[in-house]
Specification:
Blueprint lengths: L3 E4 L2 E4 L4 E7 L9 E6 L6 E6 L5 E3 L7 E6 L4 E6 L8 E7 L10 E6 L1
Parallel strand pairs: 2-10
Antiparallel strand pairs: 1-3, 3-8, 4-5, 4-9, 5-6, 7-8, 9-10
């Protein structure tokens, strides 16, 4: 069973940076598009950033230019570099395929204070 383990969240002031990592328990990177999602309190989970197996990326409008998604197939890891963080980025962040097909991991909490 594939497991997703997210890490790297924390509390940061507005304008700060965080780098999230997601380790996948088995190699799926050769064929799957990976993504980061987030879910704020009392809101639906939303797609934040996508990266294909060939490295093409796309971003949700509100994070474009501030967030960068990357993948390391040798380490089965997907990362999300988040710069210029805003309070509205506060959420639990998850990784999964896109569209999602794996059981959700526990996520990692990102809290941005104003």
């Amino acid at each position: 069973q594939v497991q997703l383990v997210e890490s790297g969240g924390g509390l940061v002031q507005a304008g700060g940076s965080l780098r999230l990592s997601c380790v996948v328990s088995e190699s799926i990177f050769s064929k799957d598009t990976m993504a980061w999602y987030r879910q704020a309190a009392r809101k639906q989970r939303e797609l934040v950033a996508v990266i294909t197996s060939s490295g093409s990326t796309n971003y949700f409008n509100s994070v474009r230019g501030r967030f960068t998604i990357s993948r390391d197939s040798a380490k089965n890891t997907v990362c999300l570099q988040m710069n210029s963080l805003k309070p509205e980025d506060t959420a639990v962040y998850y990784c999964n395929t896109a569209p999602y097909s794996l059981d959700w991991g526990q996520g990692t909490q990102v809290t941005v204070s104003s």
